[in-house]
Design a protein that fits this description.
heterodimer, A: four-stranded antiparallel beta sheet, B: alpha+beta
């Protein structure tokens, strides 16, 4: 796990602007960036591409985060995996749970209400899209 | 009343088969498992089928989620048929079922070790050798062999032959127009979606030397993705002159919405069935033909 720190910048002001202009919203830059290797220890040493990552944070519980990438099922099974964190991203585990007819394809996870996770995934052979069934984000519980 | 799956069936479905000793009931050594009512901790004694990565778990404890109505006792040694569940600090797997094995070292255990392995009879031993040169461990070779067997079982056609030509599929204009008209009659025309995962379909023409499965044919056309995109890089890429065994699925869903209109009609007009080869195992070197033939025979036998 790596940690990168960045100095806090002054928020950009709107001084000198004439009346009537809309003020830009003040955005504070993050003071700390936490970089976490999402590959779980049990898969340490894996050599997949894990490209095209996507991530979703549960708006009702920011400890619950789901990520996806072009990561195949580690056992070569028929379901595509998602990365799951239940501690705000500090640690991650992988769970093969997204129905898929070929490995994994552009899974786009989003949380709905009540801790439900929705995932869109492209189906074989890669041009048509479908929405998979909703899955509970509490991934360690039986689906 | 649900039918209890056979050992053969469990062996086929499971991607991780191991012999282990049950350590603790209603327990888990993966922190993410909240409900431990159906989980047990099992010590992995030996791995019989699985990817290379799981060999590292020999001698270690893992969490097993039992199947509905599956029961074990602490101290039991059993062959567990499982699939991956959670990959975290350590491994948790879902059991499809298990069978008791005699404890290691007893005369019975020595006698039944390999002989009683489901799917590892003479035919399967033959099949397991298919991948022996590619896999560095026996469990991985068995997993690979099972994957090939699965492809053969689901294939419409298995042939030995030679690639005589490879082409970018022409968008035959008359056929395309005809297809457009047909599509317009059936539904509103659809636009081809833009995707960075465009498979860049190619067609390989195969001159058939031997049909192992499916109807007799002199030549077949195999569609395959020419793209090396992350989505397609594993699929076989064919070259003129390439010889071997082709494990083919008949196209039911056309590969590309924009392309299918012309191609399907063009292929049908020529009276040539079109197939796909999308899985890395769908092409096997010629020297593996006897093994593939054995698998075809196995696949066609009733259980």
């Amino acid at each position: 796990m790596a940690r990168a720190t960045e100095k806090k910048r002054s928020p950009s002001g709107a001084r000198g602007r004439s009346r009537g202009h809309t003020r830009a919203p003040k955005i504070s830059a993050p003071t700390t960036l936490l970089l976490v290797n999402m590959i779980p220890r049990s898969l340490s040493g894996e050599t997949e591409q894990d490209s095209e990552p996507s991530i979703a944070v549960d708006p009702s519980n920011s400890n619950q985060i789901v990520g996806s990438a072009f990561t195949p099922d580690p056992m070569g099974g028929p379901s595509a995996p998602i990365f799951v964190s239940t501690d705000g991203g500090s640690s991650w585990f992988l769970r093969s749970t997204v129905p898929s007819n070929v490995q994994t394809g552009d899974i786009s996870p989003r949380f709905g209400g009540g801790g439900r996770l929705y995932a869109g995934s492209s189906s074989s052979p890669g041009t048509s899209c479908s929405t998979s069934s909703a899955r509970r984000a509490r991934a360690a519980r039986p689906l | 009343m649900p039918v209890k799956p056979s050992k053969e069936s469990l062996w086929r479905q499971a991607r991780f088969v191991f012999v282990g000793t049950v350590q603790k009931l209603r327990a888990a050594n993966v922190a993410e498992v909240e409900d431990k009512q159906r989980t047990v901790i099992v010590h992995v004694d030996r791995v019989e089928k699985g990817p290379e990565s799981v060999s590292a778990y020999v001698g270690r404890d893992i969490t097993v989620k039992l199947a509905p109505r599956e029961t074990v006792r602490a101290g039991d040694q059993a062959r567990f048929f499982t699939n991956g569940w959670l990959f975290a600090e350590t491994l948790a797997v879902e059991s499809l079922g298990h069978e008791a094995v005699a404890r290691a070292g007893t005369p019975r255990a020595r006698g039944v070790a390999e002989a009683s392995l489901p799917g590892i009879g003479p035919r399967a031993v033959l099949a397991a050798t298919i991948a022996a040169s590619e896999a560095t461990s026996e469990p991985a070779a068995r997993l690979k062999a099972a994957a090939i067997a699965e492809r053969v079982a689901s294939a419409d056609v298995v042939i030995r032959g030679r690639v005589t030509a490879v082409r970018v599929v022409p968008e035959a204009e008359p056929a395309r127009r005809a297809a457009r008209a047909a599509a317009a009659a059936a539904e509103a025309p659809r636009r081809r979606p833009i995707t960075e995962h465009d498979p860049q379909w190619r067609e390989a023409e195969i001159e058939v030397d031997e049909v192992e499965k499916g109807p007799r044919k002199r030549r077949v056309v195999v569609r395959f993705p020419g793209s090396d995109d992350v989505r397609w890089y594993r699929a076989p890429k064919f070259q003129p002159g390439q010889e071997g065994v082709f494990i083919l699925q008949k196209t039911t869903e056309q590969p590309a919405i924009g392309a299918r209109r012309g191609r399907a009609v063009a292929a049908a007009a020529k009276g040539v069935d079109t197939f796909t080869a999308l899985d890395p195992d769908d092409f096997q070197p010629r020297e593996r033909e006897p093994n593939i033939r054995a698998l075809v025979g196995t696949a066609e036998e009733p259980e």
